[in-house]
């Protein structure tokens, strides 16, 4: 997955959500559709911070303190949870 320059939308969405939960900052990139506008791109962050070491990612996920998630993270992750395409079965395909 890490070497994919343009991963499937579900993979991109899932890794973006993990970055949000781990409070990792996205890379700001130029929006190809709107000149002069920047967009958040989590794919580069995902590759560098979470996909570079699968064992470390699993350890981090298993040890994630789900009972003490800061309110700002809850607010940031809520839109992902409400998306219809944020579904493990759909992403797995």
TrEMBL record:
Annotated ranges, domain Dynein heavy chain coiled coil stalk: 40-91
GO cellular component: dynein complex
GO BP term (any one): microtubule-based movement
Residues making up the signal peptide according to the UniProt record: none
TM regions (residue ranges): none
GO terms for MF: dynein intermediate chain binding; dynein light intermediate chain binding
Protein name per the record: DNAH1 protein
Organism: Symbiodinium pilosum (Dinoflagellate)
């Amino acid at each position: 997955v890490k070497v994919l320059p343009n991963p499937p939308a579900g993979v991109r969405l899932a890794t973006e959500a993990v970055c949000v939960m781990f409070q990792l900052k996205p890379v700001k990139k130029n929006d190809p559709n709107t000149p002069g506008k920047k967009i958040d791109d989590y794919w580069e962050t995902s590759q560098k911070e979470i996909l570079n070491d699968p064992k470390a990612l699993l350890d981090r996920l298993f040890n994630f303190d789900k009972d003490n998630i800061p309110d700002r993270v809850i607010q940031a992750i809520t839109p992902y949870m409400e998306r219809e395409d944020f579904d493990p079965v759909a992403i797995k395909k």
